[in-house]
Amino acid sequence: KGGKDKKKKKKGSKDNWLEGAREDLLDTFVCHSIEEVNSLITAHEEFKACLPEFHQIFIDIQAQQQEIDVVATFGCNPYTNLDVDALGNRWNELLQLIPQRD
Questions:
Q1: ∠ CA 36-42-46 to the nearest 5 degrees?
Q2: What are phi and psi for residue 71, nearest 5 degrees?
């Protein structure tokens, strides 16, 4: 059961990260100084630098779901209500928002 719970937590934590990142990308910021602007630019660049790591995690989750689909006979994953397709849609939406923030 421990391994299954870890997979559920992994999906759930990535979903929360995606939602938080999406909100950050959609936020409008009011800056009162060049330092604030530079700080936002630096934070955005650091965020983009993390994307390859999160992309690999997303690919790993998709692979785990494919493994589950091969052996599953119950029709859906009873360990999470988060569907990999929905996670994929959120990931793709996030990737589309990044250039808008650049």
A1: 145
A2: -100, -10
